[in-house]
Amino acid sequence: MQKTMLTYSKIQLSALVVLRISLGWYLLYEGLTKVLNPYWTSASYLLESKWIFSELFTSIATSPIALSIVDSLNEWGLIAIGLGLILGCFTRIASMAGVILLLFYYVSSPPFIGLSYSMPTEGSYLIVNKTLIEMFALFVLYVFPTGSIIGLDVFLYKLKNKEDEKK
Known about the structure:
The protein is built from seven helices and no strands. By secondary structure, the chain is mainly alpha-helical. Helix 4 packs across helix 5 (91-108). The longest helix has 27 residues, at 10-36. It starts with 9 loop residues before the first helix and ends with a helix.
């Protein structure tokens, strides 16, 4: 079977890179605001959880040790994912980690009919909300690894190719 190579225009590649950097900035900023706020915790968000895993999220929120771990993973995960996307370093790993993190956000508070939350949302949604769209955008970045075009992944791919040539 012959492998075909698709080519993209500069504007298409630039749009993907801009998407990557924009999402990176957004996630980095979200993480930094959490780290810099000594009073931030995910407890209220987890306690608001509805749907199939609400008991799990509630148990995390009521356990000081589990909550501390989840808060740290959330804060530093957002920062690491954001930096990875901005710098174009390990972009596929950062993109997939972002998809998984946002999937947890979505599953904990999905915008389904019959579920209401005390915290106001940014708009009136039905199934598709900002979190789901961000998750799909990160999946697009996973599929199109733009770090190998513009980013530190260029150097990692070059090192990998040199090692492969030596074998």
